[in-house]
Amino acid sequence: MNLPERVIICEQGARDGIQTVPAFIPTERKIELIDALSDTGVPLIEAASFVSARALPQLRDAEEVMARIKRRPGTRYTVIVPNATGAYRALAAGADEMGVFLSASDTHNQHNVNMSTRDSITALAEVMDIAKDAGIPVYGAAGTIFGCPYEGDMPPERVAWVMEEVLNLGCYRVVLGDTTGMANPRQVEQLMSYLVDRFPETPISLHFHDNRGMGLANILAAMQVGISRFDSSVGGLGGSPTPGAMGNVCSEDLVHMLHELGVETGIDLDKLIACARLAGELTGKSLPGHVVKAGKRSELACAN
Ligand code: ZN
After folding, report:
1. How much distance in Å is there from the Cα of 129 to the middle of ligand 1?
2. Which end of the chain is more exposed for a tag (fewer CB within 10 A), N or C?
3. Per-residue model confidence (pLDDT) at position 304
4. Model confidence, pTM
5. Distance, CA 20 to ligand 1 centroid (Å)?
6. How far is residue 8 from each of residues 2, 37, 230, 235, 255, measured CA to CA in Å?
7. Ligand 1: distance of its center to the CA of 177 in Å?
8. How far apart, in whole angstroms, are the C-alpha atoms of residue 229 and residue 29?
9. Which pLDDT belongs to residue 178?
């Protein structure tokens, strides 16, 4: 099996995860979770979103969270910004990196931000200027890459076009999102081979949701064609607010699989499992992760 030696994980629980929990999680508890995640050694944490408080009341305390978390040297703290106002807020909060987002599908982009994908690209130029003046790196996140719930399959040429535009804006890496968990491993292998060939110098991260239980299989397929950066969420927190819908690929299940495969992450798995328990406690949800329930494979001899 052709696998990278090391994988870089960006932890999404505090942003993509918490934003889907209907109840407001107290600021203190968000900080507690992010600090505990930092302590696992994870290299990237998406810590906040600077989308307007009206649109996303669950994360309305983003400034306070960013001001009070303990920044671990070796961890970078990213935030999501939708527009110039968000970009100025992110700069004031001292984000290490900001992310801009759009959907490859026009229909999904319309539903999300009320404009076409092309118009989003034009509008994001302002954010890029602000970030460039401040010397802050920006990543570009493109959703619905492996399928759109309104339009169905995304043609690979369309995905390549979006990537090209995002790179032309000045993003230093792209995050390709399977927004509603539509990818399958063969599709991942084919699309990623095509994109890696076309953009050999571009760092590509993949962001899978696990709606249909194919998240880890998709990551395994992507690793075999040279992808080594993935987003995941502690406890599998996140996803659609639809009852029963699954969230992001679960971080501790992913790290457990990678370590079993001999792939390094730099993450302390025991501490991450403790974070998953904390995430369940502070969201009051029963989270979908497996390892938090079954224990690590290496512990089975002494369990039960
Ligand atoms: Zn997501």
Report:
1. 25
2. C
3. 53
4. 0.95
5. 10
6. 17, 15, 6, 18, 10
7. 7
8. 28
9. 95
